[in-house]
Amino acid sequence: MKRAPQKAKRPCIVSSCKDFATNQGYCDKHQDKIRTKDRERGTAHQRGYDARWSKAREQFLAEHPLCVECRKKNYINPATVVDHIIPHKGDKVLFWDKTNWQSLCETHHNIKTATEDRGGWSPVARQVKANRDSVNNFKVGDCLLAATEYAQESLMCDDKTVFTVIEVHGKTVFVQDDEGNGGRLHHSHFKVVP
Predict the structure, then answer these.
(1) What confidence tens digit (pLDDT) does each residue in 142-176 have?
(2) Domain parsing of the chain, residue ranges
(3) Cα–Cα distance for residue pair 83/145, rounded to 1 Å
(4) What is the pTM of this model?
(5) pLDDT one-digit tens code per residue, 105-115
(6) What is the dihedral of CA 114, 116, 118, 123, to 10 degrees?
(7) CA neighbours closer than 13 Å in the CB half-sphere of residue 38
(8) DSSP β-bridge partners for residue 173
(9) How close are the terminal C-alpha atoms of the chain, in Å?
């Protein structure tokens, strides 16, 4: 009986580590990094996702039942998540600004969260600042490497994983590797494959 081919193991995203990742991009030895991030992040309730949010969320989804990203691609898919277009990072005014909300399906929300803010904000965590004045010279089809630690964590890769540019929007590039993993980041987080 033949076995299905297994997915290739990925190296731990800690650049100095030689082990393979087992959970969220980290090897067994570096799993404490996940727990540290979770502690710094705080609970959902501490970040503002309480009963008031739950009620507002349900009402918004009732008024906007379809995923906006799926609709852009001419698909009809029910939305299950109310997303903050601009991550609020603790700003209560931005958190409750309904013009900053959009309905997304779980898949599109996960992609956006993974590529934009890695799933949350923390008053303790240092925010990575991209060079907003830099010029984006990348074009569709270019082969790139993740040049910053932030990009490697966001994309759950190491500094040797090769990505292909799929889309370019101003200073933002959408990249994917051979397995279809990827995301959307500011171009300053990448460098061309030598």
Answers:
(1) 999 988 887 887 788 888 899 999 998 888 889 99
(2) 8-42, 51-116, 143-192
(3) 29
(4) 0.45
(5) 988 888 887 66
(6) -160
(7) 6
(8) 168, 185
(9) 43
